[in-house]
Structures are given as structure tokens and as C-alpha cells.
Automatic annotation (TrEMBL):
Residues 5-49 form the Helix-turn-helix domain. One of its GO terms (molecular function) is DNA binding. NCBIfam families: excise (TIGR01764). It holds the Pfam family HTH_17. It comes from Sphingopyxis fribergensis. This is Helix-turn-helix domain-containing protein.
Amino acid sequence: MSALLSPSMLAKRWGVSTTLVYEMLNSGDLPGFRLGGKLWRIHLSDVEARENTENRPAPEAIVIIEHKPEPLVDRRDEIRERRNQTRIARMIGEG
């Protein structure tokens, strides 16, 4: 008897979302069965067969790009200076 995987276990194994696994099960793209009419289970042998037939990149071939956000710039002094200039311009114009 083949070992069984839950959708969340398969999602972790493949590095995809659990939602995608459920979509594949519901569409029939991935063979599985309902345990007790409710819980999905997938035979490990079906998973391994699919992994061996698909052209998927090896985990070492996947490149993770790290996002480096721009450093925050403190512009409070610049904003204060503009406010002061606006106030002075209003006072001169009203004078």
C-alpha cells in the first residue's frame, strides 16, 4: 500500500500553495480521493510518477531574488522649510 499525502503536505513538497493543489484535485489534473467523503488524500506513488514525468527544474536551479528596498530618507526638515516659506509668502502677500 502506498503512503498517502494530504494537500498541505504535497503543497510543501512542491513549494506551491495549498489552493493550487486543491484546484488540481478538483479539476482531475491530479489523481486523489476523498477520505470519509471530505478530506483529500493523494497516493505518494501518483506524486512520484508525476514528478518523474514532468520537466520541472531541480531545486538547485531555482534562483531566489532578494528584494532590497530603498533606504528611507528623512525629509521632515525639508517639509518644515517649505511650510515656513509658504507662511512667510502668505504674510508678505497679506501685509
